[in-house]
Specification:
The chain is α/β, with parallel strands linked by helices and 498 residues long. The protein has 20 helices and 10 strands. 46% of the residues lie in helices and 7% in strands.
């Protein structure tokens, strides 16, 4: 009997230990803010180091105040931040919007307005709550969204009542409408408020506190929107910007604005315009909305930054702290996502894609630098779907064609879009997109789109309606197998049509 009791006690202790491990892993996972890795992989050390890295990166050691004084204590840093936000949220002037709204047609139709005015339902509130990531940043009460997911049967009714009350009365509880501004440095060793980003979008009725080292300081309420930069007044070229600033209560941030000139613009004209607008002049290697302004002749040099970015991320990952499942998830969710934005617009050189594939493969096999290790599965096999015996890692070459094919479909589906109008005016003015030629001196963007067209042409088939836009000799309208050329034999022609 003693042996049986001892065994039961050991089993109970093992279960408690396992539960403690799970809680510890879950705790550090929440602290690390890593969302691509699921629980249950025993990566407590990885999460712990990730959290420490976040703390070091996001720590604000000092701030420079209005009078260039240095604030290094938590209370002083919070005071500098509070003064800064109080200043930018203090209204300096107001503009009557009516003159600018007279000629604008409403976008909200009567049917849309009726849908907006419908009473909220319990299903809508629940669906919206569960659409938020479980480990999102907690509110003032310290509860993450996971708490509300787990205890929805208990708290769901109260949440629904609070939401319904807001839509009926138009008033929201102060505790709901108070937010904390978490200061996040945008550059290493940030010391100025212009180098600090903050994580909440603002509405006019909200109130704020500034969080420094986990503690909220101050309490203030804005009476205007965000204001950054200073407009260059008394210049006629900036009149529209000033109207926008007054109407929207937002000022254009000239420090973040830039202008790009074509190569045939005279230098004195460039300088005059840049000085008048008081904004920076950028060159061919600068980016706009994450993409290069100009794709130069040497594509390996132009897109080399993508390879460097992938390599930098890979070198920063702690491979030794991740299991094979963790590395696989990271490759699929993080590694493959870095070049996607560029791949959706441009075709990358094959040599560059080969190098990126090689780096991802080395990360998977835990191969460091020039170290030579046994590679048990070739890359082509790794990109095969799991159900067919592969690892399901995406092939970037196939992904490029799929994304560019999507762009081609948009050009055909929306001929009145700005991109379609520009491409048509330059490359296929007297024909349609499917019959467009590459043209003389084509841009790399146009070349890339034509690569995507090759893919969709294989399975493209016209569905005949009036037939007004279909050429029976050149357009694909017959299901395969179809004759490669028209026959002059009446018998053969009849057999095809029947």
């Amino acid at each position: 009997m003693a042996g049986i009791n001892e065994g039961e006690e050991i089993t109970g202790l093992e279960e408690k230990l396992e539960l403690a491990y799970i809680k510890e892993e879950s705790y550090w996972r929440e602290k690390s803010r890593v969302k691509w890795l699921k629980e249950g992989d025993q990566n407590t050390r990885f999460f712990h180091q990730k959290f420490q890295s976040r703390v070091r990166r996001n720590r604000i050691w000092r701030l420079v105040g209005r009078n260039n004084e240095i604030a290094s204590k938590s209370e002083d840093i919070a005071k500098v931040a509070e003064d800064y936000f109080c200043d930018i949220f203090t209204s300096s002037y107001s503009v009557d919007p009516n003159p600018y709204l007279e000629d604008l047609e409403p976008k909200v139709t009567a049917s849309i307005n009726r849908r907006l005015q419908r009473p909220v339902t319990m299903d809508e509130v629940k669906r919206t709550t569960f659409s938020v990531h479980a480990q999102s940043a907690p509110g003032d009460d310290g509860f993450t969204v996971k708490f509300f997911h787990f205890f929805w049967d208990i708290v769901g009714g109260d949440i629904f009542k609070a939401v319904r009350s807001f839509f009926h009365s138009g008033r929201i509880l102060k505790s709901f409408n108070h937010t904390q501004i978490c200061l996040i440095p945008k550059v290493p060793d940030a010391s100025d408020m212009t180098q600090i980003n903050w994580t909440k979008e603002l509405v006019m009725t909200v109130s704020y506190s500034v969080v420094v080292e986990g503690q909220p300081f101050g309490y203030f309420r804005p009476n205007r929107g965000i204001q950054q930069g200073s407009p260059n007044t008394r210049q006629s070229i900036l009149e529209l910007l000033e109207i926008y600033e007054g109407f929207s209560e937002q000022k254009v941030n000239l420090n973040k604005s830039a202008i790009f000139f074509s190569h045939n613009t005279p230098q004195n004209t460039r300088l005059a315009i840049a000085q008048t607008l008081n904004i920076e002049h950028i060159g061919t290697q600068d980016k706009y909305l994450g993409l290069l302004s100009i794709v130069q002749k040497l594509k390996k040099t132009t897109f080399g930054a993508i390879k460097d970015k992938v390599q930098k991320r890979i070198m920063g990952w702690k491979r030794s702290l991740l299991s094979s499942d963790g590395r696989h998830t990271l490759l699929r969710v993080v590694g493959e996502a870095i070049p996607i934005y560029t791949l959706s617009c441009f075709k990358l050189p094959d040599t560059l894609l080969t190098k990126i594939h090689s780096m991802l493969s080395q990360f998977w096999w835990d191969q460091k630098g020039a170290e030579r290790r046994m590679i048990w599965i070739k890359w082509d096999t790794m990109t095969i779907p799991k159900k067919d015996g592969g690892l399901g890692i995406k092939d970037l070459r196939a992904q490029i064609l799929a994304l560019l094919g999507k762009q081609c479909w948009r050009l055909m589906k929306y001929p009145n879009s700005t991109l379609s109008i520009i491409f048509k005016a330059k490359y296929f003015r007297y024909t349609d997109f499917l019959h467009a030629k590459i043209g003389s001196i084509p841009s790399w963007g146009w070349r890339s789109v034509l690569e995507g067209r090759k893919m969709i042409e294989k399975d493209l088939l016209w569905k005949i309606g009036s037939g007004a836009n279909v050429c029976i000799f050149h357009d694909p309208w017959l299901p395969p197998p179809c004759p490669s050329s028209c026959s002059h034999n009446p018998t053969e022609s009849a057999s095809v049509l029947c």
